[in-house]
Amino acid sequence: MRVATPAQLRRLADQLEEDAPGGLGAVRSPELVLAELDYAMRPTPHERRLPTYGAIVDPVVASGGWEGPTTLHVARRPTEAYADSDTRRFADGLASWVVRSHEGANELVVFDRPVGSERDLVVLAAASGATVIQRHPSGLVRLAGTFGVLRFEGLAWHHEPPLSTWVDIIACGRNEGECCLFEDLLAFAVHDLGARGIGATLVFRPSSRSAPEVDSSHAAPPPLRIDAPSDLAPMHHVLGQIDGASFFDETGTLRQLGVKLLPSRDAEAAVDAFRGTRHTSAQRYSWDDPSAMVVVISEDGPVTVMQAGAILGRSGTEGPDG
After folding, report:
1. Which residues does residue 104 pair with via DSSP β-bridges, in sequence order?
2. Are residues 149 and 177 in the same domain?
3. SS3 assignment, position 202
C-alpha cells in the first residue's frame, strides 16, 4: 500500500489552494487531512476494483457523542493493535469509517446505516467537529468540515462554502419561520442537487400575492416538504428527470413541477441575460415576483440565489449554464 511522500502532499496542498483558495484555511491538523486525502484520491486497485474509503480526521467530539446530532447508532471498534494500512481496508466510507488522530487510525466506527450523501457528511462533520473525507463509490472524493464542502470532480476542486456564509441572504427581512425554510431549501439545493449534478430552479413563494403568469403542463406533485428529511429523496429523484422550475409555498411544500417561467416585457427590458436560459429566465422571473426567493442550481454544481431581479449570492466557480 502506497505512502505519500512529503513532495506529493505539498503538491496536493498547492492544488487545493489553487482551485479553492482558503478552502482548507480553518482545518485542524492539515497534515493529517492531507495524508488521508491523498489515500482517498489514489486508492490501490485490487482485481480491477478501486476501493471506497472514509476517514473522520481529528474529531473534537468523541465518537460516543455523535449519536444525538446524527440520529445514527455508532458501534466502536478500537484498532490500536493494527497498522494504519490494515485498519484503512475496513473503512468503506459509507457505513464504516476510520477515526484518525495524531496517534494514528486507532478506531473504526460502524454506523447502523450508510452515511453516503453529501448532506450526511456535513451533518457528521458538524456533530464530530472533524474533517470528514470520503471516496464515494462513484469515484467522487469529498471533504466536509467547518470550511464547507470540497469536491474533487476529476480535474479540479470545487468549493461550496458553509451555509452560514449565506446568513445575510437567508435573513432578507423575513420572519424566523421563513428563514428556516429557506435555509432548508438552500441546503437541499447545495448538498442534494448540486452535489449530484442535478440542474434545477427552485422558487420559494411565501407571499399570498398572485403569482406572475407561468406555463405549467405537469400534474400537481405530492405535497412533499422541504423540511421533512424523508421527503428529500423522492424530491431530488424527480427533479433529476424533468426540466422547468419547482415552486414551494410558505410552508415549504412542493406545489408545482416542470414550470416554464414566462418573464414579462418589463422584466426582459430591466434584466440583462445572465449565463444561459435557466439563469436568465429565473432572474427575470424574480423581477416579476419580488417577494419570491429563486435558487438556481447548475449541472456543474454552483448555486445562485436571486430576488427582485438581483443576484444576492453565488457559490463556487461558475461554469457553463446547465
Report:
1. 101
2. no
3. strand
**Residue 210 gets which letter from DSSP?**
P
Residues 59 and 23 in one domain: yes
Q: Answer yes or no: do 15 and 99 share one domain.
A: yes
CA separation for the pair 207, 122 (Å, rounded): 31
Q: Contact at 8 Å (CB) between 87 and 99?
A: no
pLDDT in tens, 250-280: 999 999 999 999 899 999 999 999 888 999 9
What does the radius of gyration of the chain's CA atoms come to, in whole angstroms? 21
Q: Please identify which residue in the block is written with the cell numbers 424533468.
A: 242
DSSP 184-198: HHHHHIIIIIGGGT-
CATH of the domain at 144: 3.40.1700
Q: Whole-angstrom Cα distance, residue 68 to residue 257?
A: 35
- Rounded Cα–Cα distance for residues 299 and 282 (Å): 15
Provide the terminal-to-terminal Cα distance of the chain, rounded to the nearest Å: 40
Grid cell digits, residue 240: 433529476
Please return the burial class of 275, using the count of CB atoms within 10 Å of its CB with bins 0-12, 13-18 and 19+: middle
Q: Give yes or no for a contact between 13 and 30, defined as CB atoms under 8 angstroms apart.
A: yes
Residue range 120-167, pLDDT digits in tens: 999 999 999 999 999 999 899 999 999 899 999 778 888 888 887 776
Q: Which residue has the higher pLDDT, 289 or 28?
A: 289
Q: How far apart, in Å, are the Cα atoms of 135 and each of 27, 41, 100, 209, 311?
A: 19, 7, 16, 46, 34
Tell me if 322 is assigned to some domain: no
Beta bridge mates, 247: 203, 256
Cell triple for 196: 449530484
pTM value is 0.83
Pair (121, 267) in one structural domain: no
On the 0-12 / 13-18 / 19+ scale of CB atoms within 10 A, 200 is buried
Grid cell, residue 183, equals 435555509
pLDDT in tens, 84-104: 999 999 999 999 999 999 999
